[in-house]
Amino acid sequence: MNISRIKVAGAALFAAIYLTACGGGGTTGVASADTSSTGTAAIASPQPTVTGGTASPTLGAAPTTSQTPTTATAPTTPVSTTPAPITPVSTTCAPTTVNIASGLTDYGKALRPFSPLAKPAKLQRVDDPDFPGTKIVRITDTLADFNANVTIPAYPTTQAWNCDESRFVLYVTGAKTGGKQGWAMFDGKTYAFIKFLPINPPDIEQFYWSHSDPTKLVYIDNRESGGTIIMKMMEINVETGVQTQVFDFAPLIKAQGWPTTGPVRAGYPFYSGGDLELWGLGAGGIPNVSGQLGLNAFGFNAKTGKMTRYNGIPLAQARGTTPFPLKSGKGWAWPDWANHTTVVFDLNGNIVRTVQFDAIEHLDSSINAKGEDLLVGTQYDGPSGSGNLMVANLSTGAVSTVIGVSKGDGYPRTSTLISSGAWKQPGWVTMGVTGSPYGSTADNGSNNAPVANPQTYIDQEVSVANVDTGAVFRVAHHRSTGHYSNAPVNNYWAQTNVTPSPSGTRILVQSDWGNANPKAPVINPNASVDTYVIELPSYKPN
């Protein structure tokens, strides 16, 4: 969710009314790829509905069509696509020694030109004219490839790339008649489409790559079969397609006396702690909470099969306030919307501390160079200030600003998304901002109409930042306009789901390329959305 420029003195009301499911549309419009369950039904999670090209009242939440389960069918070979030769998968996931900042320029707060750049052809590598050293590669043509309208990284708090960067997964949706959609795997070196994965997670973002095995991806199966809800954690070998059950939650949920008529799913942010070890989950089948899918919240250790109940908070949680695991695997954190704070739990489910950071906006969990757990995200009039990039240290309770009002950066721009997906580079995060498609003003504000000489600072930019040193490097213009929140429409699929590779040298981001000519931006909620790779100077193809 992104409350944008609205002052948030009454954010508790927003928490009660709006959804914070920043990640997306559940099984919206998805033809499930689970070939082992043909004829079963995917379970759709409740989302705000956008109809007739009008704006959703919830900025940043994904549109949906219905909460009614839909028949699952398996995706097949995409339309008009001939996969290129596949690069063999590495057998190791070694740490990186790459310096992300190598070759980057620190432009400070200076306005950068926003130059015209025609939409590249598929697999065309172009120089970003405004950020020398950065390459941009358009890796999909969603209409020609899949006869669909959208191909995107699922969400910034999901790790799209596997641990050795030889594979990544994009989400394809908006299929036209005869089109294909689902979870599409690509070659991480050539960017060639490989195949759709036969998975059916409870939301489009809830798939998880191993940090040690490049072939291993885990998800929680989300189906109904013969009137029974399937709630099994599954592991798939993405190369062979072989699937293995990791854990069946049904006996555990029944032992608690909880309903088994709803799915088991993760909270937000969408990530596990450690290497697929610690999880923050919830079991459905209970009434909605604060207008969202209601879940009985629990922590789970996949190595031991142990459930942890959180002390000091209600059992029933909205899906957006379900506690999430710390990336270190040392506990959980809970977004306390009512008090605009974040509560930290230890591995026994006991409260350790409360941090003055409002986890209602787009954010991600992270780890700094010291190994301390963090939350990084945007604050609009939060308890510790306002900024596009603020950092809450969940290990100490300190809150700091990297980009924000206290640093002279003006009020936070709209629709900021942040990812800590470069997990081999502790302390580094990636930020994408829609802001204004018309660029920025000299006083660190945003233009609200076309200008003759468009320039940017924060608006329309992708940046990488080190939360330990405060270094910020602006690296590219994403040129996506459909998610501009001041427009009469609000296109969820065109937001900037920046997703860095584990080494941080490449960044996936979607764009409708409405800013091919920044002097005359095109804001079209029906434009097709493709995925691009931003290659930093530190990226050296093997």
Residue fraction in strands? 25-35%
The strands making up the biggest β-sheet line up spatially as: 4-5-36-35-34
Q: Quick one: biggest sheet?
A: 5 strands, antiparallel
CATH superfamily: YVTN repeat-like/Quinoprotein amine dehydrogenase
Q: Into which percent range does the helicity of residues fall?
A: under 10%
Structural domain tally: 1
> How many whole angstroms does the radius of gyration measure?
21 Å
Enumerate how many helices there are, as a single number. Answer: 3
CATH C-level class is: Mainly Beta
Question: Kindly, what is the distance between the CA atoms of the first and last residues, rounded to a whole number of angstroms?
Answer: 38 Å
- Choose one word for the global shape: globular
CATH architecture: 7 Propeller
Mean pLDDT: 86
Q: The CATH topology is what? A: Methylamine Dehydrogenase, Chain H
Structural overview:
With 542 residues, the chain is mainly beta. The chain has one domain: 7 Propeller (Methylamine Dehydrogenase, Chain H). Helix content is 4%, strand content 32%. The protein is built from three helices and 36 strands. The strands form nine sheets. It has a five-stranded antiparallel beta sheet, with no helix packed on it. A hairpin with a 5-residue loop joins β8 and β9. The longest helix has 7 residues. The N terminus is likely disordered. Keywords: Signal.
